[in-house]
């Protein structure tokens, strides 16, 4: 049978446990900032939960927590038992979570943040935040997420759903987040990100529409990278619509 991981189950469990612990520590550090009262966004409607960066951190923590659970279950049951249903279902849930949410959303956070930051940081991460959020925490939220995703993709093969199901599920998430962003503005009169306040209504529609549509190519990118990394094992099948 073709390999689905590049590490033994116990080593893989330790890796996932380490990454899971890192995300818990990052979230705890974010939530326990002693200068949080100076952060204009954290004191406003929705708090941290209106930022995709924070939602992404929580999503990744949940994902790697699920990886730890799957690894632990697979280590605890026999091969015969693993074919009975529950571990297999957990593995499918892990794969769906990674392919549909963790990779495309995490990649979007990484690319969009550093693109806007390079162009004009005041549009996404005003300089005043440097006095509130430590540099290491900024990189933990916006940079480290990408190599950890690529590491996970390299270490473990994830079966992709059909493209229709995968992109539709991702579109549902995007629609829910956009609805939340618009509700925050409706309820409080503020935009989640500074760049939105500088755009005209047409510009805002173009910006939000472009950001939303970029999710599909990122989903396909994940599928392509996974195929490249695992094609030699014969265990990765390209999905058709």
UniProtKB/TrEMBL annotation:
Its UniProt entry gives the catalysed reaction(s) as: 12-(9Z-hexadecenoyloxy)-octadecanoate + H2O = 12-hydroxyoctadecanoate + (9Z)-hexadecenoate + H(+); 12-octadecanoyloxy-octadecanoate + H2O = 12-hydroxyoctadecanoate + octadecanoate + H(+); 9-octadecanoyloxy-octadecanoate + H2O = 9-hydroxy-octadecanoate + octadecanoate + H(+); 9-(9Z-hexadecenoyloxy)-octadecanoate + H2O = (9Z)-hexadecenoate + 9-hydroxy-octadecanoate + H(+)
Give the record's GO CC terms.
endomembrane system; membrane
| UniProt keywords, alphabetically | Membrane, Transmembrane, Transmembrane helix
Q: Does the keyword Transport apply?
A: no
User: Membrane-spanning residues where?
Assistant: 12-29, 49-74, 95-116, 136-155, 167-185, 191-221
What InterPro entries does the record point to? ADTRP_AIG1
What name appears for this protein in its UniProt entry? Zgc:112175
Annotated localization: Endomembrane system
How does the protein's chain sit in the membrane according to the entry?
A: Multi-pass membrane protein
Entry's family note: Belongs to the AIG1 family.
Q: Name one GO biological process term.
A: definitive hemopoiesis
Where does this protein come from, organism-wise? Danio rerio (Zebrafish)
This chain is encoded by the gene named adtrp1
